[in-house]
Amino acid sequence: MTRILILKTGALGDVLRTTSILPGLRERFPSMEVTWVTAPAARTLVERHPEVGRVLEVAPDDEAAVARLSEQLAQERFEWVLSLDDEWPLCRMAAAQDTVRLSGATIVDGERSYTDDVREWFDMGLLSRLGKVEADALKVQNHRSHPQIYADMFGIAPGQPALPLQAREVEGAQDFFRLSKLGTRGPVIGLNTGAGGRWSSKTMPLAEVVRLIESLHRSMAGQVHFLLLGGPSEADRNQTIALHASNLADPPHVVDGGSENSLGEFAALIDRLDLLITSDSLALHLAVARHRPIVSFFAPTSAAEIELYGLGEKVLSTARDYCSYRKDADNSTITAERVGESALRVLGTKVT
Known about the structure:
Rossmann fold, single chain, six-stranded mixed β-sheet
């Protein structure tokens, strides 16, 4: 048996997209047994995967809890530790393990560092040995996706993230669609245009979202529904979008999907969509995991890192600070016209 320890705790979308390595690891190590350490909020995203045998949760910023779990795991022996977070406590955890091979972030001579086999990824990150200027330049120059890079680093075939749904989640989404009369006259388009409180520059400008709804409603002769999606930090934003949409001369059918859904419930709503229009956020990765058609837009972050697996299109900012990872990056070129044209193409509708 090949015992593999994966340390990946956040963010939620990053945890989910990292599950793309599991099919390739199983192919390379048919007898593998995976233990995955993740944050409590991300547990759902890994514990359902059929290739994960054990999930251990710990808050990565709780140094005492991480140290206790590290001591517990150090009593075991792993053939391979994949250390994919760069926080100090998790680097210490990786360094403390009894393992044949360690790949990823660790402690070297008392400082955080990373192993040479993962340089392609970590050289572009906050922990880069090359310094921030060079790391940022590599981000912009990079044209390879996260699963491609990871597959090459670990010597496996590229895979796709997966998130199985529970029957109650599927049934709940079915009931919500039925009660909301979604899908009764044409496709349902999900709009996940926020991105949490910390990343305002990832969002689509609110006025452009309303214009997008109006444009798609007109282009599709009213035969379309819109489902507003997001978490608690998007609640007010989505209510504002719904209010503005209701005041249009020809009001479209717009439904607020709520902001307190569990991860599974959120994924089940996305699973019923004909198209998701989304920022670079958890919803994007959920749609990929559930194989749903996607139009995704990018301003401060790298579109190249995201693999859509042929599910849709990307709309990239044309501003000078695209892929700058600045929280105040210019998102003004993420317009209703550009996103709407992509949406109609993905839906297979002629642009008018």
